[in-house]
Amino acid sequence: MDNRITEHPILGIQEKGEPVEFTFDGKPVKGYEGEPIAAALKAEGVMVHRYTQKEHKPRGIFCAIGRCTDCVMVVDGVPNIRTCITPLKRGMDVRTQYGVSDRKFEEQ
Amino acid sequence: MNRVDLIIVGAGPSGLSAAIEASRRGLEVIVFDENEKPGGQLFKQIHKFFGSKEHRAKVRGFNIGKQLLEEADEAGVRVILNATVIGLYQDKEVVVRIGDEVVHYKADAVIIATGAAENMVTFPGWTLPGVIGAGAAQTMMNLHGIKPGKRVLMLGSGNVGLVVSFQLLQSGCEVVALVDAAPRVGGYGVHAAKVARTGVPFYLSHTIVEAEGEDHVTAVTIAEVDERFQFVPGSEKRFEVDTICLAVGLSPMSQLLKMAGAEMEDNPKRGGQVPICDNHGRTSLPGIFVAGDVSGIEEASSAMIEGRMAGIAAAEYLGYTDAETMQSDLEQLENALDGLRQGMFAPKNRGKLIEKTEEGIDISLNLLEKGYVSDDEIERYPGVTHRKGVHPVIECTQNIPCNPCQDACPKKCISIGKDITSLPIVVDDCDCINCGMCVASCSGQAIFLVDEDCGDGTATVTLPYEFLPLPEEGAVGNALGRDGQVVCKAEVVSVKTAKAFDKTYLLTMRVPKEYAMKARFFKS
User: Fold this and answer.
1) Contact B274, B296 (CB under 8 A)
2) Does B499 touch chain A (CB under 8 A)?
3) Reduced to 3 states, what is the DSSP secondary structure of residue B360?
4) Given CB atoms, is B145 within the 8 Å cutoff of chain A?
5) B59 shares its domain with B142
6) pLDDT, tens only, B158-175
7) How many domains does chain A have?
8) By the 8 A CB rule, do B174 and B427 touch?
């Protein structure tokens, strides 16, 4: 995906951590260590982070500073992790959250 | 229970400034911040700031942030990050969640510098992924190097909406429209003008009807609103977008103060629920102070001054400085703050329609309604003059507290005078040497160097340029007018950079001479 800014007129080329692999819903994806999980997902074009418990409506990044909780996902088996402020680590298991689970509603 | 002299909540511009002043006066200070890094929103601000030298004008926000962190380091300020203050109780007991632990602290004085949170508006589809806060867009692109979207619609024409729209363009995103339900642009005219001249259309008196999309935003419909904010039937316009950015104001995050029992007021001029406080941040609770946006929405420049004041006032409260010394220390800061609170965007003028400048010149209505000054309006401003040879054309048309252009010119061709909000003028005996310092120094990107007649039927226009890729010398493209529409063909004569320009490139283009006062942007 071309969502990463390769060179910025004011900020130049941004320093990033080590390139690392992690998984999104079981599929291998790439990101940079230390950047927010949400940033790495956005770079890959992922828009939906979770579906709401009652109405099963999609939610994604909204405030990007850890305030609104729209972007929470299941990370390494723990639900409700605010992906916009949680740093990415090598090998993380990141999953779409359905209600408060990583299992789709029909499987719950 | 951990005890310190002073606890500051928030390591943004005001909190850090307060910590610096208090530490220098001998207080033991701890600053808590819920974020991973200190600096608050300063590190997302990549534009040059307004003001004068004492306010660090023409320095980009993130560089001011770096200076502030260095200053805090030197003063020995202790900042604890990833630490969310969840309670402020009687006798200044502060409860902090650090990681999975809840820790109790007690201080003799507390400064609340929690800043503000973004407001939101609702419309059908507003919860779809792709509808984001303008702050989220800033965070993604300026901190993490990620484009918030490819095609973006911005709602809100205040300074946040305008500045973030420009930043989106700088990041390589397309801004399809800038929309505001208000009938007039809310932010600085110069911020609007630099967005409009790139071709972004402004829709004032318009708002969002609905956002479309299944799993994420794919389109948005806007419509005109009447004076009672009701949709005008038949005025709908639809844009295919993947992102909608909301920049609809900020609200003070004053919950801790309310919790502690400080006297509060609902003050629309300050942005909502704010603690009642004096000029130096003293609340109704002895020993509890406030600084920055939490006590009224302003800018980072004023937040830093307010922070310093609160830090000094807290030092005096605890006996680390005497009242007389405090008074003289505060005086200089009061003057600096007063300077920033002048002009037509001053807090006291919020919500007022100002029709004339301090000089008695009519304000451009086009600027307020469409985001740019029209060709027939621009001639009325004192910075716009006609001369032989290269000379500055200063399209600064509103009284804002800013004066770096006056100091930038080595030949003293530009004058603002002692009143920082006055419109700049080009002096009569202007001896311009075409150095470009004025163009690069103008935080509003409103100064151009124009040679109206090069003698061969052409004119040259030098403009500030902050986009990539840089056009090459000799490249031929279109010159755009202030309204962002193509006015003529243009050839790039030169693209200059210098350390003193601080990343603002000076692009000089050649146009037919009849377009010298119309061509204001280059698009290849």
Assistant:
1) yes
2) no
3) coil
4) yes
5) no
6) 999 999 999 999 999 999
7) 1
8) no
* Contacts (Cβ under 8 Å, ≥6 apart) of B226: B205, B232
Q: Are B177 and B161 in contact (CB under 8 A)?
A: no
Tell me, yes or no, whether B385 and B485 share the same domain: yes
Q: How far is CA B79 from CA A48, B70, B259, B437, in A?
A: 35, 13, 23, 38
Count how many domains chain B has.
3
Residue A34, chain B, CB below 8 Å: the answer is no
A64 touching B (Cβ < 8 Å): yes
- In angstroms and rounded to an integer, the radius of gyration of the C-alpha atoms of chain B is 24
Per-chain mean pLDDT for chain B? 96
Among candidate residues B182, B188, B104, the one with its CA nearest the CA of residue B396: B188
> B82: nearest CA in chain A?
A85
A5 touches chain B (CB under 8 A): yes
A contacts of B248 (beta carbons < 8 Å) = none
With an 8 Å Cβ cutoff, are B136 and A62 in contact?
Answer: yes
- Judge if B231 and B278 occupy the same domain: no
Residue A82, domain member (yes or no): yes
Strands (E), B68-150: 78-80, 83-89, 93-98, 101-112, 116-118, 131-133
pLDDT tens by residue, B383-427: 999 999 999 999 999 999 999 999 999 999 999 988 999 999 999
Q: Is residue A108 part of a domain?
A: no
CATH of the domain at B156: 3.50.50.60
Whether residues B141 and A5 touch (CB distance < 8 A) is answered with: yes
pLDDT digits (tens, 9 = 90+) for B33-86: 999 999 999 999 999 999 988 889 999 999 999 999 999 999 999 999 999 999
Buried b (16+ CB within 10 A) or exposed e, A34-60: ebbbbbbbbbeebbbbbbeeeeeebbb
Interface touch A64/B171, C-beta < 8 Å: no
Interface membership of B35 toward A (CB under 8 Å)? yes
Q: What digits encode the pLDDT tens for the residues B299-328?
A: 999 999 999 999 999 999 999 999 999 999
CB contact under 8 A, A65 and B135: yes
A100 Cβ under 8 Å from any chain B Cβ = no
Nearest chain B residue to A67 by CA: give it. B117
* CB nearest to A60's CB, from B130, B144, B171: B130
Domain range enclosing B441:
375-523
Element at B127 (helix H, strand E): none
Is B36–A85 a contact, with Cβ atoms under 8 angstroms apart?
yes
Residues B135 and B220 both lie in one domain: yes
In a domain, A66, yes or no: yes
Q: Based on the fold, state whether residues B239 and B255 are members of the same structural domain.
A: no
Q: Which distant-in-sequence residues (6+ apart) come within 8 Å of B17 by Cβ?
A: B68, B291, B303, B304, B305, B306, B307, B308, B311
Contact list in B for residue A89 (CB cut-off 8 A) is: none
B98 to chain A, any CB pair closer than 8 A? The answer is no
Interface predicted TM-score (ipTM): 0.97
Q: Is position A1 within any domain? A: no
Res B348: pLDDT: 86
Residues pairing with B522 in the sheet: B479
